[in-house]
Amino acid sequence: MNENSTWVLDLDGVIWLGDEAIPGSREAISILRDNGRGVLLVTNNSRPTVIEYLDKLSRFGIDVSTDELISSSIACASLIVPGERVYVIGGDGLKEAIRSSGGVIVEDHQADVVAVGWSKEFNYEMMSVALKAILDGARFLATNEDPTYPTPYGLVPGAGAIVRSIAYASSCEPTVAGKPHEPIAKLVRERVGPGSVMVGDRHSTDGVFAGNVGLPFYLVFSGVTKAADPNWKPSPARIGKDLLDLVRCELAL
């Protein structure tokens, strides 16, 4: 492998589960850096802000720069035209990214764009406002379509569950920004070089994304997936129980 390669890492299920670090993740990143590998963290979780992500990583002993993090919120915001009015269903991370891209957040259906991410506060009224805006001609953007989100206590509904309810009500399919789709794939291609790899815990998201970016897919069993399927395409180039297992195998440690 090229010693200047970058390891593109999912967060949920690879680095942590909820508020608990996956054992060995800090050591794995340290080993990669010590051996000249770059690290790029790419997540579909749209809720946290950039600072919240960096603070959480720091609590786990992992220090990264803003240039080493791409979220589905950032990818979604890259599709916003400055000055567009945006009705947001999602957390502070999505709102921060949209404001940074020049979008104007509104609280009613008089919007040019409806942007939907993961939200614990999602309710019927929000769905109704989003539906009205989309039927009135607003563009429908989604951070991601992940049906579930891994936690230390099992799976909980993901952003995809919210997105699908709005899509079903409106009979309108969203433009999806996060993994495995093109908006976030474009951002990653701009930052990685030859010999890079993608590590994730879900083939339907991370594996397909790796193929779209043009990277080998390394699968871990520390998150959603607990067994590989021989029918997956592309099939994983490497499989490990967790990130540290993959790193040690790759670097023959």
Descriptive labels:
253 residues, alpha/beta, Rossmann fold, 2 domains, six-stranded parallel beta sheet, 9 helices, 15 strands, 21% strand, globular
What does this structure look like?
With 253 residues, this protein is an alpha/beta fold. The protein has 2 domains: 6-44 and 179-250, Rossmann fold; 80-176, 3-Layer(aba) Sandwich (Rossmann fold), CATH 3.40.50.1000. Helix content is 34%, strand content 21%. The chain contains 9 helices and 15 strands. It has helices at 25-34, 50-59, 72-77, 92-100, 124-135, 159-170, 182-189, 203-213, 243-250, and strands at 6-9, 16-17, 20-21, 38-43, 69-71, 85-89, 104-106, 113-116, 139-142, 148-151, 154-157, 175-176, 197-200, 217-220, 238-240. The chain has a 6-stranded parallel sheet, with helices on both faces. Helix 2 (50-59) links the parallel strand 4 and strand 5 (69-71). The protein is globular. The two termini are 15 Å apart. The relative contact order is 0.17. The mean pLDDT is 95.
Tell me briefly what this model is:
This protein has two domains: about 5-45 and about 180-250, HAD superfamily/HAD-like (Rossmann fold); about 80-175, Rossmann fold, CATH 3.40.50.
